[in-house]
Amino acid sequence: MLKIIFAILICIVPAFAQKKVCFTIDDLPVVSYSISDSAFQREITTNLLNKLATHKVPAIGFVNEFKLYSNNNLNSFQVSLLNQWVTQGFELGNHTYSHLDYNIASLHKFGAEIIKGEIQTKKLLEGSGKSLRYFRHPYLHTGDTKAKSDSLDQFLNAHHYIVAPVTIDNADYLFALAYHRAYVKKDQSLMNRIGTDYLTYMEKVLHYFEQQSSALFGQNIQHTLLLHANLLNSHYIGKLAEVYTRNGYEFIALAEALQDKLYETPITRFGKWGISWIDRWALSQGKGNDFFKGEPAIPAYINELTK
Ligand SMILES: [Zn+2]
What we know:
Elements: H1 2-15, E1 19-31, H2 38-54, E2 60-63, E3 69-70, E4 73-74, H3 76-87, E5 91-94, H4 107-116, H5 119-127, E6 134-135, H6 146-158, E7 162-163, H7 172-184, H8 188-217, E8 223-230, H9 231-246, E9 249-251, H10 254-257, H11 277-284, H12 300-305
Parallel strand pairs: 1-2, 1-8, 1-9, 2-5, 6-7
Antiparallel strand pairs: 3-4
Bound molecules: zinc ion (ZN).
């Protein structure tokens, strides 16, 4: 009898292996498009952080420090938005000073942007006993040749940065722009429609990258999800967390996600692309077009609204 129970357990345990994801949120303090109203920006930050806390999501935010300055003066309001992340126990990382594109910048210029972009974030983190550890490439542009990619990796290493990869890439920013435009027009029913379709789309994206991970590795990697600090996510990140929970996910910090050895898979092909690390590994292993089929489409009306 015991042998039978043991055999059953061996069969079912892999099926119930815990799925894990880290939520990573870019372009801090906030993506507010043209709205400079401080109450609006405060609300985005407060909603985002409260919903992450309610759902016990240990997210990390990536900062563009140029947003902390107005006319070369440090803007204490913007710093206070960032400080909310730190005081609520969230981690912060560097996303370059001005969201510079490494596809069009030299290592010299890009490196200077990394250093310029760490000053206030470092101060805030160190003030609460933490240190700045992670770097996220703007546009996920990591270097379009091996030489350019390697030289940036060496720079990041020398400055004690750990690269924050993305496995679940998506178009949250397009839904967010459409949502923002509906908000400006005070069109609540359109906002509701975009929000609902956003959740449906994000669940399809999750299933797509689960399938890609399984196809490439025979297992589901500990995922890193890319999001942005915008109004849409400030309203829907709680519901998005519920989508992940319903799909069997536990929320983890970036350090834990990166313990997955699959992140050590070599990347040997380079391009101007800003794509998921799963796609980079797949390209490096010679996968052809067929492998990448089935990525969820963005609804036509979202594309229309963002023109
Ligand atoms: Zn960004």
